[in-house]
Write a structure and sequence with these properties.
Largest sheet: 14 strands, mixed
Number of strands: 28
Structural class: mainly beta
CATH class of the largest domain: Mainly Beta
Order of helices and strands: HEEEEEEEEEEEEEEEEEEEEEHEEEEEEE
CATH superfamily of the largest domain: Protein of unknown function DUF4465
Number of helices: 2
Shape: elongated
Distance between the termini: 84 Å
Strand content: 35-45%
Length: 391
């Protein structure tokens, strides 16, 4: 019995080798004849190729439901594929380019899409998010087409799916302090929220809100809102805020290097840097936060090996804001600790819950610091972009 099995296996190996040798000889004969170099295809009956049918997902910064210049591809978004009978077929996450890919081929039975029919693509909208394009569920009908790369074709492509995070404003008020927050839209006050002393706050922002103003007990400040959730940290009359008329310097890390990776050198942007690396958003495969945490340009900055990092200066500078993101979906919900010092005095210490899907706009707006220390509770990498200071 064993001998028979071995003989059958040997025969199969010999047959496979003979088939490969025959194909190699045929290919050699075809390549020998110059007439085949640029031959017009005449037989369209077969198809041996494969390609991806993709669902493209992007962060819709202006929430208008259209993929535009200010929008960014999203990585790590789960997309599920079902067949025409509603049976689950496969699932894939969007890659660094924003594409969730499903292999299609009539010659590969293992391909998720290998027979004609209707298929449903469903984007899994994360908790606390919405789809601005209202097309998170789309269907595509594939018909047979001999001679096409996969043997299948569709009359229409899937439309890009836009997502945005519901914006919330959070922070804390110091003990004994009194403050309120005015929410603005196009210069008009649309809501006022009194804040309780010694308590945290978490406010949902209207879709059209574009700025907030804090008043009370010497804590006056104004912040232009971004497309992302905002954390103000501790509001305290003991810490002067950046003057609303101050000239802000945005540090995007795009001019640290034109290559994929470089440790941020001291002297860059006039600051001293420790344990921070500049990284191209698509340099590291499989990292969602380096892609989703990239707000402008093509580079971000991150805490090397997830260990604590710092930026500082001998001369006091204003620490206005920074975008903070978890580097990996595996660290979703990681907590960052941002400690701001003026000389040897700790003047602010804030914790921020991170996501790898979008940054948190951390805006302490401190008028004078000399050192800022960044760390995470479980030593996962922390991604920074669009650091804003006052010099």
């Amino acid at each position: 019995m064993i001998k028979a099995i071995l003989l059958v296996g040997f025969a199969a190996v010999v047959a496979a080798l003979a088939w490969r040798l025959a194909r190699s000889r045929l290919r050699a004969r075809l390549r020998e004849d110059p007439a085949n170099d640029y031959a017009v295809r005449r037989d369209w009956s077969g198809n041996h190729g494969k390609l991806n049918h993709s669902s493209f997902v992007y962060f819709d910064a202006d929430r208008d439901g259209r993929y535009g210049l200010g929008d960014r591809p999203m990585a790590g978004i789960m997309v599920r594929l079902h067949d025409g009978d509603g049976r689950f077929v496969a699932a894939a996450r969007s890659n660094r380019g924003g594409f969730a890919n499903f292999l299609a081929s009539t010659k590969r039975r293992a391909a998720p899409i290998h027979v004609p029919g209707s298929y449903r693509f469903t984007v899994s909208v994360p908790p606390g998010w919405r789809s601005s394009s209202a097309n998170e569920v789309q269907s595509q009908h594939l018909r047979p087409l001999p001679g096409s790369p996969t043997g299948l074709a569709s009359e229409a492509m899937l439309q890009p799916v836009g997502l945005f995070a519901i914006r919330r404003l959070s922070g804390r008020v110091a003990d004994g302090a009194s403050a309120s927050i005015s929410v603005m839209a196009k210069g008009q006050e649309v809501a006022v929220h009194p804040l309780s002393a010694g308590a945290g706050f978490r406010l949902d922002l209207p879709d059209d809100a574009d700025a907030i103003e804090v008043t009370g007990d010497g804590m006056e400040r104004r912040l232009a809102l971004s497309a992302y959730p905002t954390e103000l940290g501790l509001l305290s009359p003991e810490n002067a805020a950046v003057d609303s008329a101050a000239s802000l310097q945005a540090i995007g890390f795009d001019d640290v290097t034109t290559r994929g990776l470089r440790k941020v050198p001291s002297g860059y942007a006039g600051l001293t840097w420790f344990n921070l690396n500049a990284l191209a958003r698509d340099h590291t495969e499989g990292s969602e936060g380096y892609v989703n945490g990239n707000i402008s340009g093509d580079h971000v900055c991150y805490t090397s090996s997830g260990h604590p990092a710092e930026f500082s200066s001998d001369k006091p500078f204003g620490f206005h804001s920074v975008m903070l993101t978890a580097a990996w979906l595996k660290s979703e919900g990681e907590t960052a600790l941002v400690e701001s010092w003026l000389g040897d005095r700790l003047i602010a210490s804030d914790t921020i819950v991170l996501s790898a899907l979008a940054p948190v706009h951390y805006a302490p707006m401190l008028a004078a610091v000399t050192r800022v220390r960044l760390s995470t509770s479980h030593y996962w990498q922390l991604v920074l972009d669009d650091l804003v200071v006052v010099r």
